[in-house]
# Entry
Amino acid sequence: MARKAGESDLGPSVKPLESDDRRTTAGTNGDRAHREALEDLEPAAGIAHPRIASAFPPIADYAFLSDCEVNCLIAPSGRLEWMCLPRPDSPSVFAAMLDRAAGSFRFGPTGVQVPAGRRYLPGTLVLETTWRTRTGWMIVRDALCIGPWYHSQRRSGTNRRPPTDYEAEHILLRTARCVVGDVEVSLDCQPVFDYGRTAAKWEYAGPGYSEAIASGGEMDVPVRLVTDLRMGFEGPGAHASKTLRQGEKAYVAMVWPRSRHSTAKEYWEEHPAPATADEAFQRVERTADYWREWINRGEFPEHPWQSYLQRSALTLKGLTYSPTGALLAAPTTSLPETIGGERNWDYRYTWIRDGTFMLWGLYTLGFDREANDFFYFIADVAKGKKDLQIMYGIGGEPELTEKTLDHLSGYDGSRPVRVGNAAYQQVQHDVWGAVLDSVYLHTKSRDYLPEVVWPILKRAVECAIENWKKPDRGIWEVRGEPQHFTSSKLMCWVACDRGARLAELHGDFELATSWQAMADEIKTDLCERGVDERGVFVQHYGSKALDASVLLIPLVRFLPPEDPRVRATVLAIADELTVDGMVLRYRTAETDDGLSGEEGTFTICSFWLVSALCEIGELDRARELCEKLLSYASPLQLYAEEIDPRSGRHLGNFPQAFSHLALINAVMHVIHAELGMPNKFGVGAPSPQP
# Structure
């Protein structure tokens, strides 16, 4: 998410991070040991050591799969390198992207690591990889299967939102088909449970060699492999190979239970894996059909950039946790913002701040059901609570204890590896504005205010009124001293402004008048103290530093786009807070964020600038920047949190929900500006306000 600089700094009252230095029982990390040995050697005089290529694929080269209950990332080699079970925030079963010895699962041609081509089947989250070998060609398809709702005899133990016609099958399905010549296909599955600490124990699950179960520790869910190959066990892995000739098929299915308590025979029978290759291919196609039917419900303009909008929508859907309606900020933890640096955070949770942007994006594209589910997730976690947290677990958990996993080497040596996120204890004043904007947008879409949220709404406005004069750590969650951040005051204004509109709709005109008066007071204070002598909104009171978060000023309708202060602010950020046109959150030399090292440009901030440039009428600059940003998309049109403007390398957790939400907003801004269409709600509005 866009919070970044200090998710775990909570002031002197917070205990230090727990350091978990238990070593993996799966063996030592050979890659790390080799690197450390090299560092101990004295270089020969006058001889420079050649640079050793990283063993880790570039972050942008991973493919993302989801069934809206779990997700995974697959490297170009065909190796599954990140997957947590039975939930996205559970301990990992495959974590090779954070340590090459922490578990992986490959299904592909023997001896070939570089594919001839990769793509998603259009309109889906089904990955297709084409392989060329010296003897033939083969196509592999990977999918996290989705099928018909199957809880006909008993209720789901996790579902809190109204059931749909479809549900995750808890099956990762991988199919292979030889299309030319003959190709040997190999299966290599080496799970290492509990973030790489517990080696798998394998046993056959049937009379033959086609079914096997891998078990971890007491708290880990087992995984079952079903295939039409003949498996055997070598060390911690299950392996198989077979030569496929033209037209022949093979498959492997990995099945897991909903929890470690759901391993009875009845559960496995309720979730049967495909029994034949033909059935496996039908299951993959059924999953592809589900995604195509889902994307067809959206409203996408006829435009050359349509595919980016559709891929962003599919990614956001994949980042939802359907049982509760929560939105993950990203499916990963500790992918670095700087290679080798310490800015590594766990984003497998949901931030209330994302609620506003989530609803903007989904309502803009016509996905009302997903927006409704996320809205009621917010209502669930806020119900009966006096203080609203900035973030929660995807099941609504309020405590997200943070610790480091010191036994993992980290992506490309970037440590520490963190799980949990101590930012849940921070106080950030923008959270109330995010909630109120979400409620207002939801209400406006239906012309109806659900009575269940009225107490939540009142508490949020009251908290904003009580706290707006106090300093906080801001939208970026900095580790330095609290400040009077402009963006925090802005969102307190949003809380009061939206609250006044909702109070009027609720029939409480006295409260509406009171809250609107407070909104006016906040606006006056912000316009007096948050602007420098140039007429530019700054990062915080008393500072001259720029901050990309003030680009939200025109987007939340704090001031009209034609206001000279808005124009001056947008142009100052475009000219002074960019590297090769790409936007930084802030300049680290000017901001006390409590961390060392540099960071890349923030993808969401660059897309915000596109939208803001459109707002002030700088369409040519907006389109030029949008084209540049779209050119930086990964090969599969995905975005991480940051982009290095010099190399185009993606940095940070991947794929990032906030980046894709901002893309939708920016692209729709440009399209509507080109067509001369007003940015009205329902057709790509950047803000829920009229």
User: Anything to note?
Assistant: Residues 82 and 95 are 5 Å apart (CA to CA). Residues 486-506 form the longest helix (21 residues).
